[in-house]
Amino acid sequence: MKKITDTELIRSANRRDIIQTLRLHGELARVEIGDHTKLSPATITSITSELVQQGLIIEQNVVLDPSGGRGRPKVKLQLNNQAAFYLAIKLSINEVRFMLGDTSGTIVAQATQAMLTVTLNQEQLVDALSKAIEEFIQHNEVKRSKLRGLGLAVQGVIETQGKGILWSPAIKGKQLELVEQLQLKSQLPVFIANDANCLAVALTQLPKYSKLDNLVAIQLGYGVGMGLIVNGELYQDASAATTEFGHTKFSLNGPQCRCGGRGCIEAYVGDYAIYRDASAIYNLPPTDMLHPSEKQMLDLNQLTEQDNPAMAQIFSQAGTVLGMGLANIMALFNPQKIVISGPGIRAYEHMKESMLRTLHDNLLPYHQAENVVEKHNWDEDMAGLGMITIMQQHTD
Amino acid sequence: MKKITDTELIRSANRRDIIQTLRLHGELARVEIGDHTKLSPATITSITSELVQQGLIIEQNVVLDPSGGRGRPKVKLQLNNQAAFYLAIKLSINEVRFMLGDTSGTIVAQATQAMLTVTLNQEQLVDALSKAIEEFIQHNEVKRSKLRGLGLAVQGVIETQGKGILWSPAIKGKQLELVEQLQLKSQLPVFIANDANCLAVALTQLPKYSKLDNLVAIQLGYGVGMGLIVNGELYQDASAATTEFGHTKFSLNGPQCRCGGRGCIEAYVGDYAIYRDASAIYNLPPTDMLHPSEKQMLDLNQLTEQDNPAMAQIFSQAGTVLGMGLANIMALFNPQKIVISGPGIRAYEHMKESMLRTLHDNLLPYHQAENVVEKHNWDEDMAGLGMITIMQQHTD
């Protein structure tokens, strides 16, 4: 249980609260910060003075309200976007994407680089990443003194204690000292999170979701990931920090899943599962069976749209499986929103009908899912935005 | 997101923390309270003085350590068990059970009363409960001034906003103003919670579970309930405060569930489901099909023990279904413990083997469930103990 033990902790919590409020709302007067945070004027004055002194926020005088008001000119505060930077690194299969966030959380520079991640052991990966990070920092003229951290967003299973990777399709074996090694090499704080968890955190920064207590983010694509927000915070278990929705079961006797089990949701809905099922019926070009390409997946969409009922049936079955999974999520959490995103939403329209029908058919009578399930357009920045937020939450 | 906004809130949190520490550990010196709570000596002195003044804790001088020590006699603090009382009321089908808790959380008086709850509408239930409460209070000579609250532990679905019951097998229809009406009539604060949630909270008060962040309590019996502890606190969603594990799905095409759906875990594992399946094979005495009696359920155990393979198969299938549900819980939460209790554990030994086998066969390779699943002996006090804790958490 989290405890409130001393005034310093409270002051940092209030400080984070003020910074976060400025991040969400932009330019604000001190009194407006009070409206949002419910902090006392004295607390706000004290903390914002410190933040101004540290260069994290900027004061701007605005034109005196001609009607008079409180008798002195209003001062608006805003974040100094040049004060602090955060480098998010999305680790995918043989591809590394760098996203540089500024103080406000906006991505101000990015680059994608091919890297044979799946062939690299921990030492080699640390070397390759460090080199690429240095290049990115130099190319974008980022001042190291302003860089608050590096954050790895990883497809796969993160080990929270050891701060490394237990399993990921993007790397070779376990890499349990990845964070420590990268920290030593870069001399910067290093953070790590599962990419579906990053998605969930990124969603909490959007005005439409920022006020929700309980939110579920589902990430469709290579696998089927999930991030769970409870009381406004990311749920993380004691060891492997993942909510593995994709490995809950549709059927004990279902198709083989890459996790070794059978009948997991992912074994019907993951890209590899859909491609595998399609190749049982259609004469498809050969592929890396665990990682069909984006183009190959788009070709399956096209097959469906060309009126191939068997292909439509595969997507419809995937939708049914997903719908049962969503019904289970509703039964267990009854979240305010379930947001579905990830590259796999390219086929959302082909799964949607059976998904929603199955969800509604299996909902408890006293639950309602109207307006609960939403699609959120996917772009690769989502993982980076979430990772930048995670870094900010830990360093603000 | 919960916010820390002012010093009064912090003081109450610290106060609760100190009371709770004395509840868990009994008699403690101020310095020992500091070891447990990590609060500063000044904070502890200030808060404990207030608590002594209010009569909530008692100071006891203990013999001066002959070896000297800090130079003055040690004072031990303990809760004054006569300072505050809490009346938990377990509402079951046609039975009401009263459990009176003292300041330490110990049940010091109890009584069970037959009441035709299923025939009573809200007004009638409030009247009948009020009368029974008055009788209980008088019979046990409880001083009203020391009674901090009434707490209803209810089989069924609680509506947290309206503070009433959305659905329960124990009552007639919805009763959405039950709390308000009972509060008006009794002039006491009234609390309400689902009984499986009460079980989960009761478990957090046991030394073996009190330090866990994430814990799942499964309550087997009439239905299959669940309580979820996240970061040491009960998970409650925004509307209906239940984690309905029993209504997650084993199979979309499974047996009819009483919720209206098909193939829910409860439709295989709930008492009514097991009795229904058994009566398809054996010539069983007629029963209330939704609520077979404890004796009738024990008779099914006996059938199994008399070497009736069909009956053993029904329990084994229930175990398999439960095992898949537990595998899903592990995938989603990876909790530190899953504790199974409730009256339905009377058949635990008949379900255990298939349950654990299914769980282990369907576990993710990087999770481990050894020592995670445990049976906890059931008694009717568990719901009361949890409800008393919930009342204490709200009134301390």
TrEMBL record, chains A, B:
InterPro entries: ATPase_NBD (IPR043129), ROK (IPR000600), WH-like_DNA-bd_sf (IPR036388), WH_DNA-bd_sf (IPR036390). Transmembrane segments: none annotated. PANTHER family: GLUCOKINASE, ROK (REPRESSOR, ORF, KINASE) FAMILY. This is Xylose-responsive transcription regulator. The lineage of its organism: Bacteria, Pseudomonadati, Pseudomonadota, Gammaproteobacteria, Alteromonadales.
